[in-house]
What does this fold into?
Amino acid sequence: GNSVTQMEGPVTLSEEAFLTINCTYTATGYPSLFWYVQYPGEGLQLLLKATKADDKGSNKGFEATYRKETTSFHLEKGSVQVSDSAVYFCALTTKGSGSRLTFGEGTQLTVNP
Amino acid sequence: DADVTQTPRNRITKTGKRIMLECSQTKGHDRMYWYRQDPGLGLRLIYYSFDVKDINKGEISDGYSVSRQAQAKFSLSLESAIPNQTALYFCATSEGQSRPQHFGDGTRLSIL
It folds into this structure.
């Protein structure tokens, strides 16, 4: 079956620090990969996505590259802001799964001024 | 107005009660989903529907049922609530395969 593993949280950083949140996956078939973000009291929002190997998804200064050889999709940002404080979820879907998403556990990020 | 609307936003109820959570969408998507979120477990799929006549169980469907009343409406029911169903519940919609899902703001359900 499909599974997603994220680095354990919570993660606490100072403003302007570099962020990496690790995500690795196992999948039956060829997955599409996503990062979602959940701000306090809100639902999940799509942050970025990649649908094939070596694709780089990017949005709001965040980036993640689809690495088939290491089955990874790590999230990075060069300089975090206080407003980036949220929970981040890595997720995947595979063909034939009915576009069902399999989520990682989520990583809580807190950015201090 | 939100594209995916969940009601109620918060609910506290007692063990054994029947509860219905409602979801409506204005995105025109055929596919709709119900998830529950528990701390440290991410989101887990309860039920999903490809259209009004196509409803499927997810990974944790026991104790839940759903109804797809129209393309835009998908309700989740707990026939006899139990405390371990206390969680945050999300509805989501999607256009199709490999397309992103769009989430509502969630229903926080507490069962005493």
The interface with chain B takes residues 4, 32, 34, 36, 41-46, 49, 51, 89, 93, 95, 98-101, 103-106 of chain A (CB under 8 Å).
